[in-house]
Model the fold of this input.
Amino acid sequence: MTKLNAELIMKSVHKQITNINEYLKNSNLDIIADFICLSNNGVIITTNRPANATELSRIKNFLKKIDNIDPISIEAPHLSKSKSYMKIVRLSYNSELGMITPDFIEGVLKETYLFKDTTLASKPRVIKVSPKSNKIVVWVNI
Done:
């Protein structure tokens, strides 16, 4: 989104929130836009719960219809990515299944109940504690 478009939306932010919610309600969607704020990349619209693809598409369509907005500059909306990580310590580099690799860690996490529906931000990093040690530390960006 261009800076000019973001500024146009922010000038009438309360009106835009009301109109987005009315548009979503008329589309028979049960999601509510809470507020809009400005970021370096455009505008951030927060909702009462994570939006699905249909709801994101409806919000994008609404933004394209705002007066004086360049619809071509409205990019595909997306959910924010978490900036969390997990550190797993004291694992043996060699297990019964062989050496522990990022793909192995990723496979184990996907089979675990807690991480079943989680998307990793990047491949896990496997780091040896020291060159002669058999212990590793695994960093997982979630």
About this structure: The chain has two domains: 3-73, 85-141. The first helix runs from residue 3 to 11. Strands lie at 33-39, 42-47, 85-92, 94-95, 98-99, 125-128, 135-141.
